[in-house]
């Protein structure tokens, strides 16, 4: 994705996580459905005396729906994602606001924070650049928070990669770690990078 000049709403820019992480309720439902499906094999054996599904007289449409239906429904819910009442199965999305002062954020657990431009160190993709995870760092190298990329611009509905957006908005302070892949990570122009592009960034304070 290439950030085009003028492609975003004026500051402040409000971003939200494109797809939040599964919540505690989703975890409980997932384990319950898996246990139900596995237990169904035992019930099948008790009712039919057979361990082979599909033998004559051992399978009915109604029985199949009762047994397999929940895990199929769960799979559909997972694909649909956090829409409508299904939002209750997912954690609150991470939200990030970018304004003239810097970055502010609210995480899934409702904890919030902010970092001015002068103290922001950069954004990294973590250990594996193929991963969708991003980490935001303080100028002293401390990790401020992490989130699952990409983000979505509330005003335009466009998907956004935060490292690329930061480099675009503040080219005086930040540059892509790898110009060929600006969506992966950005660093301060004055901060030396102590790790290569395959590792999580470790930033030293600017001299």
Which key terms come to mind for this protein?
single chain; about 210 residues; alpha+beta; PH-domain like; 2 domains; six-stranded antiparallel sheet; five-stranded antiparallel sheet; 3 helices; 11 strands; about 25% helix; disordered N terminus; disordered C terminus
Name of the top-level CATH class of the largest domain: Mainly Beta
How many separate domains?
2
Number of strands: 11
**Number of discrete helical segments:** 3
Describe this protein's structure.
Residues 1-7 and 193-207 have low confidence and may be disordered. Strand 5 and strand 6 (133-138) form a beta hairpin. This protein has helices spanning 24-48, 61-80, 162-169, and strands at residues 13-17, 95-99, 102-106, 112-116, 120-124, 133-138, 143-148, 151-153, 159-160, 174-176, 186-188. It has two domains: 13-21 and 92-188, PH-domain like (Roll); 24-89. The strands form two sheets. It has a six-stranded antiparallel β-sheet. A five-stranded antiparallel β-sheet has the order 7-6-5-11-10, covered by helices on one side. It contains three helices and eleven strands. Helix 1 runs antiparallel to helix 2 (61-80). It has 207 residues and is α+β, with helices and mostly antiparallel strands. The two termini are 33 Å apart.
